[in-house]
Amino acid sequence: MFNNAGVLAESKPEVTVNANLLGCIYGTEIASTHMRKDRGGKGGRIINMSSKAGLTDLPNVPTYCATKHGVRTYTISKSNHPSVEDTGVEYAVLFPGCVLAGLYLKLIEDRIAKQGKPSVARNEYLEIPLSRLLDGFLKLVTLEKMNGAMLEVTPDEDLFVRMEKVVIGSTYPPSL
Ligand SMILES: NC(=O)C1=CN([C@@H]2O[C@H](COP(=O)(O)OP(=O)(O)OC[C@H]3O[C@@H](n4cnc5c(N)ncnc54)[C@H](O)[C@@H]3O)[C@@H](O)[C@H]2O)C=CC1
Ligand SMILES: CCCCCC(=O)CC\C=C/C=C/C=C/[C@@H](O)[C@@H](O)CCCC(=O)O
User: Quick one: which of 60, 61, 35, 65 has its CA closest to 47?
Assistant: First the structure.
């Protein structure tokens, strides 16, 4: 199960929280119930889509950022529940930087339409081709064990980090 749906809509906090956080929570809960081995299911893997925004502070997209932090803490909490062994359901989170697709691409295009140039919207050193995100995703799918994995997808390397090793709270300048 991959909970990937999300929006970047700062002017609509309810829409953002519903899609990014509640959607992920309900998707995870419903899938977990169906998958659990101890209740007749076959076990399985649930991968939830956070973002680099789930590891940092972004002054210009605070609601988006809060939902992505929520996805991280919710998923890792699920992975740490003692019943995980019995249920056979594993949980992991993905943290991509800026992927040249979807909502980031739309943000750049909107900037170009408004300002005639992308200007501060581009963060080239954080940009990742879609194929690299797919590689990270497939890594989580094919690993022998992935419960509790936090995979940050960067331009240079895939990094497995657990909660205690993650530095949370650095603030990016409000360029977007
Ligand atoms: N594009 C980027 O740079 C990054 C994106 N992400 C995350 O990746 C995920 C996918 O985003 P993108 O592919 O960029 O955008 P996208 O706009 O191409 O895809 C988002 C999808 O979510 C669906 N969706 C939105 N609200 C929904 C709702 N309430 N119910 C059901 N479906 C809903 C949309 O219909 C769309 O198909 C999101 O969770 C986003 O936060 C994470 C890091 C970077
Ligand atoms: C760094 C956050 C990447 C998050 C990518 C997404 O989830 C999709 C895009 C949504 C929001 C992007 C916000 C980006 C903000 C950054 O451009 C900027 O504030 C970071 C500047 C970094 C720096 O110069 O050190």
Answer: 35
Distance 73 CA to ligand 2 centre (A): 20
Q: What's the 123 CA to ligand 2 centre distance in angstroms?
A: 7
Is 114 within 8 Å of 121 (Cβ atoms)?
A: no
End-to-end CA distance of the chain: 31
pTM of the predicted structure, to 2 decimals: 0.91
Query: Yes or no: is domain 2-160 CATH 2.60.120.320?
Result: no
- Please report the ipTM that was assigned to this predicted complex: 0.92
What does the pLDDT profile of the chain (176 residues) look like in tens digits? 999 999 999 999 999 999 999 999 999 999 999 999 999 999 999 999 999 999 888 888 999 999 999 999 999 999 999 999 999 999 999 999 899 889 988 888 887 888 776 555 566 667 888 888 888 899 889 888 899 999 988 877 656 655 444 555 555 655 55
Positions annotated as catalytic residues are 64
How far, in Å, is the centroid of ligand 2 from the Cα of 53? 7
| 174 CA closest ligand 2 atom index | 19
Ligand 1 atom at minimal distance to the Cα of residue 96 = 43
Ligand nearest to the CA of 47: 1
Candidates 69, 74, 50; CA nearest to 169 is 69
